[in-house]
Please model this.
Amino acid sequence: MPYVAIVTVVAFLEYIVLGVAVGRARAKFGVAAPATTGHPEFERYFRVHMNTLEQLVIFVPAMWIFAYFVSPVWAAAAGAIFVVGRAVYARSYIRDPKSRSFGFALTMLPLLALLIGTLVWAVRALII
Model:
């Protein structure tokens, strides 16, 4: 489980870095808190940060449940892909929101694998 813990911490650190980027974008584009709209580029930073939060709510428990019941190594591997996917998503979305598809896929595919893998395990555990 140490690998899962490491991936979890890295995912949270990534979220913090994205939050700092939002703060910098606020200053750069003159969007005072608590506003969440204003300059379009600021809004991209803000949306990346919020999208990441929305994904973390599902990702972290999914990874830990999968790790506990199925495989910590595979959970950490899927988690690492998720974290890389969020970084790709962030860079793409901030540059051009239309180019975010690859990063989105790198986020969603491991997340779905964790969820479906856990569901398959649970159903099999009930049947057997």
Observations:
- The helical segments are 2-29, 40-69, 72-95, 101-127.
- The domain at 2-127 is CATH 1.20.120.550 (Four Helix Bundle (Hemerythrin (Met), subunit A)).
- The first helix runs from residue 2 to 29.
- The CA atoms of residues 15 and 52 lie 7 Å apart.
